[in-house]
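Module 6 notes. Inverse folding takes a fixed backbone as the condition and produces residue identities as the prediction. Think of it as a translation problem where the source language is geometry and the target language is the twenty amino acids. Below is one complete input and output pair. Work through it position by position during the lab.
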């Protein structure tokens, strides 16, 4: 990529599906994004176009004009869907519209797995999930009906990054919550182990995307 995308190309990038990165635009716009390494054309019918990792970075690197806070971004106040990792304002809020959003995002992620995993499998995480570990694990939990913890409450899960390059920590208020979260993550293609914090003695899960 030798120059920034044009305004028209930028609109196509910004309008990409927030989970799958699927693009909509004219053939000329999509072809230009492919030439610049910002998109790729899937080899399988219907040959849709998707953002590459570079394309995702281009979209995410530019701040919104209103400069939303981290809490705004996590709770979806920017208008773009984001899985709730636990601890953000409004994390405990639900309702039919949120259920529909989560269901749609999860179905989109399964489709991304089908289209980008070499064998078309949907039983394990894809490349996007491996570069967005916290969001991916949180989406799997929320889509299965688990509740994220609120900003001050202790009920519900919290998904957090760890120093390990391909692992997230999942915290919960009790062993029952952790066991339920572990079962969901294992069912959706993650390897999960239970651990104890040596300082607080609190139990937590360590989860990594399964490769095979």
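Target side of the pair, the amino acids:
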């Amino acid at each position: 990529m030798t120059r920034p995308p044009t305004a028209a190309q930028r609109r196509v990038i910004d309008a990409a599906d927030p989970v799958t990165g699927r693009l909509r635009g004219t053939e000329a716009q999509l072809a230009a994004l492919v030439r610049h390494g910002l998109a790729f054309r899937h080899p399988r019918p219907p040959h849709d176009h998707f953002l590459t990792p570079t394309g995702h970075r281009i979209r995410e690197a530019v701040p919104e004009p209103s400069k939303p806070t981290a809490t705004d971004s996590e709770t979806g106040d920017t208008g773009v869907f984001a899985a709730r990792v636990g601890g953000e304002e409004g994390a405990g809020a639900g309702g039919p519209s949120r259920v529909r959003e989560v269901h749609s995002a999860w179905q989109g992620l399964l489709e991304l797995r089908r289209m980008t995993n070499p064998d078309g499998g949907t039983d394990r995480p894809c490349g996007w999930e491996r570069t967005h570990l916290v969001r991916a694990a949180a989406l799997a939990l929320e889509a299965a009906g688990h509740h994220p913890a609120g900003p001050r409450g202790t009920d519900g899960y919290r998904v957090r990054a760890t120093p390990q390059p391909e692992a997230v920590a999942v915290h919960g208020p009790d062993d029952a919550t952790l066991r339920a979260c572990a079962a969901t993550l294992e069912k959706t293609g993650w390897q999960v182990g239970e651990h104890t914090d040596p300082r607080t003695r609190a139990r937590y899960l360590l989860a990594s995307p399964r490769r095979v």
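Reference fact for the lab report: The radius of gyration is 18 Å.
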